[in-house]
Amino acid sequence: xxxxxxGVGVGRKKPGAPSAAQGRSKSPTPNASxxxxxxxxxxxxxxxxxxxxxxxxxxxxxxxxxSHKEEISDDxxxxxxxxxxxxxxxxxxxxxxxxFLGRTLGLGDYYYKLALKVQECCVARRGxxxxxxxxxxxxxxLAKRNLKxxxxxxxxxxxxxxxxxxxxxxxxxxxxxxxxxVPGVLDEDVPKVVSLAQKTTPPGVGCVTVDMLCRTLGWxxxxxxRVLDKMVRDGMCWxxxxxxxxxxxxxxxxxxxxxxx
Length: 261
Prior knowledge:
- The protein is mostly helical.
- It is built from twelve helices and six strands.
- The strands form two sheets. A three-stranded antiparallel sheet has the order 1-3-2, sandwiched between helices. Strands 4-6-5 form a three-stranded antiparallel sheet.
- It holds the Pfam family EAP30.
């Protein structure tokens, strides 16, 4: 009895064909271009949302500035709070009048004009205080000229024009801010002398000696004399002989102790 050879049926695996298990184990690979398109769309949506938030913030801030323009210009305390708020938002309404706030408020012009007034004040008093004056004294002088400004306003104004060069700078000495308007580079030892001078008495506030600098600051005599001699040449202090010792009186500290006029 002859046996017939069975033919190839549908259940028989074809050579090179994947098994059903293998076919089920592989998930279809996403199209790369489709993925790129989806990512680009999501990025565009995020950028557009961020832009709309920034635009709304600018509109709200501009509306606030417009409605409170007079208070920002005339009230130093309110102005400082407004600037602090802008700082938290990383917005500078001062640097350029081309910004949306600059065009609204003109604060750049305000601080530029204030810096000029401060410079005029310092120049007028340089022969009296030797180019060293307390910021609070400048505030008092400007107030007598009907110009309201805070110590912070003055610091901002001078910092904004510092890029133009010049020798005006605010230096903090023992929690007291001074404006130094001495030409040239400010010796780092000078504020230390000013600090000591505003605490000494007797012979009086504003006076230091070589021995005092050596004992208090730990300097050697050569360093103390170098700094004091330079301050004398720059007009920052005058010399007076008290008994057997030479005393150096700092104009700015001594006059400030007498009050502003």
